[in-house]
Amino acid sequence: MATSRLQMEGDDSVLVHITHSNLKSFAADVRFSPQMNVEEKLWKKCGTSVNAIALELYDESGSKVAALSDDTRDLSVSTPLLMGKNGDNLTRFRLYIVDLDPSSVTTGGWLEDTSLVEKCNISEEDYAKRTDSFRKFKEKRVSQNPVASEVKTKEDFMEDLCANIKVGDRCQVEPGEKRGVGKYVGKAEPLGPGYWVGIQYDEPLGKNTMACMSKSIAI
Questions:
Q1: Residue 147: exposed, middle, or buried by beta-carbon count in 10 A (0-12, 13-18, 19+)?
Q2: How many CB atoms lie under 10 A from the CB of residue 48?
Q3: Does the pTM of the predicted model rise above 0.85?
Q4: N or C: which terminus of the chain carries fewer CB neighbours within 10 A?
Q5: Buried b (16+ CB within 10 A) or exposed e, 67-78
Q6: Each residue of 148-163: pLDDT tens digit?
């Protein structure tokens, strides 16, 4: 049976498109497995508290399929619903988050409209006069220990760890519990010395094009 990014071979997780009632610019592809706490993962993604989340399921045509109650939102129950008749997940589903909290952090546009956020502006001259800035802290550290500031990463840094990682290995990146597949293992001169691992996340996060690399890497 052919597999796709929606359903990986040997993996009981499912990839679902997520939208939100208050966040008009929010949209994400989130991978769930039956063992996950749905509301907790969604809370980390959008900010709606666990107790204020109501879930509605829509199919690819935009038609509402179901309102997921406490009994049906368990993915061990709803995963078969998200799959096609033959278990091939050909249908694209959307999970719509309804925020039931009128005082939620997602209301009022505060998480989307940057014009609502008060900006702090300071001139270069005034910043240079401050004694509690990061620039002053860094200058103080360098003056106290100039040798430490010259320490460079070795060319073989992390080589022993990367020797146990292969392209195609599944992994979970911490912090953040981001899961993905290893797509590159080796040196990456544009990023600095040592050995690096390139991860393609299950969800659309990070620089998955590997555009920082001087050579083309297909992922």
A1: exposed
A2: 25
A3: no
A4: N
A5: ebeeeebebeeb
A6: 666 677 888 889 989 9
